[in-house]
Backbone:
């Protein structure tokens, strides 16, 4: 009698928890865990204050001017850094990307300067700009610039040659081709580049606040820690997380919008 | 302009432009303007570089930095790939973990530094921890993407032939996801360098990051620049080596993609 | 040996439900080469997935040796149409063919022999250490066949395996599958939309209706066992069968009652 033992079952269901409930359940579990464990002493209370206390501290902070000042400072640094980077990187990227000659000329410089971690320039920033907003913006802009430049270059260079040839055969001038064919096709790449550059700008902003001591959430977090105010420290860290999620969310939405309107350049679905 | 002329011009520019920039640097540093003190002549920087990093401070600063980075990155790779494989295989687990993962990865890494200092202290373990913690996310997310993106026909083939769960994980899912995993590792590698530098600037008594900041504080400007130069070289070299390794390991992937595109 | 018993498959629910398979019933006997042919969109692939245990039927069941299939059976192998996506790109030909053998826990030499024999029977001996992307489409499909053969299945399911190769390669592959079937003595269920192919290869042909699919009719192929691309296709019986199948497929309405295979 030949055995027909099946090797792999068609379906394997583990828990009978409805799908929509899962994320909520896990978040709830984490919150409960991080509230109870410190209270019963499994986690040292001075390192891990119960999360309910952290959250209530956060709620209190929402009414404090100093809190919003710090948030504002961080956002200011982020916005200026990203804005300057975009104002420079996108035009420069378009110009360099559209000219094979220029690209060859600048390629070496770009490849040399790009790998320098922007954090390495923190001491330089201190020297030239001091410990205030300017330092912060310089670092954030420097780091975001390279991200955006590379993304723009790639987007401009990745334009479908058939599209540009078609435009040329219709008699469009170089500038017209740029605005009507190249730029529209590069926009998704630029949109993605902006999203990444935004994250980079936030990171460098907070870094500058932490290391240099510029006003902002990074500095406030450090002060809270060194002042022994752990609940405040965690509350502010959560705030930066929320900020990160919100800013990222804005760019993801914008990116999706752009990609939806955009005739798909690549075959099949978008996304790596 | 003929293409031959264009090509010659391009090659010429490729050399001239960097040289031009160097000349500009030289001129700026010897001018008496306000900040030119912070941009010493390149010859100074290079000679300081040779004095410092070949090989005076290699043992005292470069090695500790690289060790921390290596450990942190290594731990991140192991943890992230393992977790990523498991999460990739279970849609339920993914859905449950999603909000936590999304939140944790959105926290700007420097904001976590005070947390690490609070809980672990200011020693090497703190630095390794923060590097590992931050490097996990890109690799984790890419691993999950890689696993969920495995071609359905490949999955069905694996099921039809009754491949054991163990083989399915290590010999099918892992290799299939490896192009994505490597992409994530490349991102994490540059993050590791950044976190190494930051953590050393904030809480350390040795390391390249510490050295650069300390040089700035003591106005040892050429030394500061030598450190910056070293970090640039490290960034470039590490990335280059990684790309070489990636190319070797993923040779099959390039070949497959090339033939798929016709 | 294999029984498809009132098989039905419906996708989706409520008003969006699509009934891919209505009510299928037929039998596959040991050592037979059964060709399943039907118009496009008649759920041939769904049928094969249910037969191989990859998909659970909505109604009815498939039985192998009188045991219900609810997961890919051990003694069954399946060759897909998209050969390119069914071979593991990071493995060489040898590794691809040997991979399914791992679960059988054979000795290294025994496994090695099986692999080499299978690869030789599909004429790819010189390519053992190449990678799939280095091979042409026809060669890749031969590797997939070799992999199925080395696995030594009792029954081999093939889902339009030659649809994606050019006509010349297809003719070669058709002869190849006949040859290896003779050599390995394996039962074959071969799904195709190509009528000529179904007549040329099959001992028996099952004609399907459009969705919701049922069996239109079953017919025996009364051609000499040794098939040849030129000679067999010149036989009047070939033309007759071919025309019969064609007409059967073209018949617009699905049969009111599925016709049962002649015992």
Residues:
């Amino acid at each position: 009698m030949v055995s027909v033992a099946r090797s792999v079952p068609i379906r394997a269901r583990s828990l009978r928890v409805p799908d929509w409930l899962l994320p909520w359940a896990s978040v709830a579990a984490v919150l409960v865990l991080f509230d109870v464990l410190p209270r019963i002493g499994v986690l040292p209370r001075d390192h891990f204050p119960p999360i309910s206390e952290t959250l209530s501290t956060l709620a209190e902070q929402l009414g404090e001017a100093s809190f919003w000042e710090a948030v504002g400072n961080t956002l200011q640094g982020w916005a200026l850094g990203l804005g300057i980077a975009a104002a420079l990187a996108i035009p420069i990227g378009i110009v360099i990307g559209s000219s094979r000659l220029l690209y060859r000329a600048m390629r070496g410089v770009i490849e040399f300067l790009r790998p320098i971690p922007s954090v390495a320039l923190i001491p330089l920033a201190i020297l030239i700009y001091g410990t205030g907003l300017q330092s912060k913006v310089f670092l954030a802009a420097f780091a975001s610039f390279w991200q955006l430049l590379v993304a723009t270059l790639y987007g401009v260079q990745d334009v479908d040659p058939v599209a540009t040839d078609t435009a040329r055969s219709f008699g469009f001038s170089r500038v017209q081709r740029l605005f009507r064919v190249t730029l529209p096709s590069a926009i998704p790449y630029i949109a993605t580049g902006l999203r990444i550059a935004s994250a980079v700008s936030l990171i460098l902003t907070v870094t500058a606040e932490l290391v240099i001591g510029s006003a902002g959430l990074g500095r406030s977090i450090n002060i809270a820690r060194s002042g022994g105010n752990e609940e405040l420290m965690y509350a502010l860290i959560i705030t930066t997380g929320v900020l990160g999620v919100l800013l990222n969310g804005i760019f993801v939405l914008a990116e999706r919008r752009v990609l939806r309107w955009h005739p798909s350049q690549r075959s099949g679905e978008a996304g790596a | 302009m003929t293409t031959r002329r264009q090509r010659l011009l391009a090659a010429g520019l490729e050399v001239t432009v960097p040289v031009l920039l160097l000349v500009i640097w030289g001129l700026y540093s010897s001018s008496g303007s306000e900040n030119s003190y912070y941009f010493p002549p390149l010859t100074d920087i290079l000679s300081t570089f040779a004095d410092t990093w070949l090989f005076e401070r290699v043992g005292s600063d470069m090695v500790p930095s690289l060790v921390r980075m290596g450990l942190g990155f290594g731990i991140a790779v192991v943890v992230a790939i393992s977790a990523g494989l498991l999460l990739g295989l279970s849609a339920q687990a993914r859905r449950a973990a999603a909000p936590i993962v999304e939140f944790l990865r959105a926290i700007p890494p420097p904001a976590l530094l005070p947390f690490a200092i609070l809980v672990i202290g200011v020693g090497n373990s703190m630095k390794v921890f923060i590097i590992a913690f931050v490097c996990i996310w890109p690799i984790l997310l890419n691993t999950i993407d890689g696993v969920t993106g495995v071609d359905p026909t490949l999955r069905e083939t694996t099921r039809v032939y009754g491949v054991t769960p163990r083989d399915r994980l290590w010999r099918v899912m892992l290799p299939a996801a490896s192009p994505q995993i490597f992409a994530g590792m490349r991102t994490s590698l540059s993050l590791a360098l950044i976190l190494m530098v930051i953590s050393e600037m904030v809480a350390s008594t040795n390391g390249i990051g510490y050295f650069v900041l300390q040089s700035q504080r003591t106005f040892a400007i050429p030394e500061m620049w030598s450190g910056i130069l070293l970090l640039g070289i490290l960034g470039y070299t590490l990335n280059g080596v990684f790309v070489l390794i990636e190319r070797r390991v993923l040779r099959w992937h390039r070949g497959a993609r090339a033939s798929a595109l016709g | 040996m294999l029984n498809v018993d009132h098989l039905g498959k419906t996708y989706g629910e409520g008003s969006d439900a699509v009934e891919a398979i209505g009510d299928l019933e037929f039998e596959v006997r040991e050592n037979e080469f059964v060709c399943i042919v039907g118009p496009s969109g008649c759920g041939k692939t769904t049928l094969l997935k249910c037969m191989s245990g990859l998909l659970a039927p909505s109604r009815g069941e498939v039985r192998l040796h009188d045991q219900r299939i609810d997961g890919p059976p051990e003694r069954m192998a399946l060759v897909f149409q998209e050969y390119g996506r069914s071979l593991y790109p990071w493995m060489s030909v040898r590794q691809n063919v040997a991979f399914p053998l791992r679960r059988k826990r054979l000795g290294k030499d025994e496994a090695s022999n099986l692999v080499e024999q299978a690869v030789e029977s599909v004429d790819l001996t010189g390519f053992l250490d190449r990678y799939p992307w280095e091979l042409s489409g026809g060669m890749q499909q031969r590797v997939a066949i070799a992999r199925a053969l080395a696995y030594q299945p009792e029954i081999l399911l093939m889902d339009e395996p030659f649809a994606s190769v050019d006509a010349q390669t297809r003719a070669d592959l058709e002869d190849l599958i006949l040859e290896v079937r003779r050599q390995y003595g394996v039962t074959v269920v071969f799904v195709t939309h190509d009528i000529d192919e179904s007549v040329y290869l099959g001992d028996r042909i099952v004609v399907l209706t459009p969705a919701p699919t049922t069996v239109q009719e079953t017919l025996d192929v009364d051609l000499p066992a040794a098939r040849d691309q030129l000679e067999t296709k010149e036989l009047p019986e070939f033309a007759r069968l071919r025309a019969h199948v064609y007409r059967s497929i073209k018949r617009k309405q699905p049969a009111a009652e599925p016709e049962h295979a002649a015992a």
In short: Chain C has nine helices and ten strands. The longest strand of chain C covers residues 18-28. Residues 167-184 of chain C form the longest helix (18 residues). Residues 50 and 56 of chain C are 6 Å apart (CA to CA).
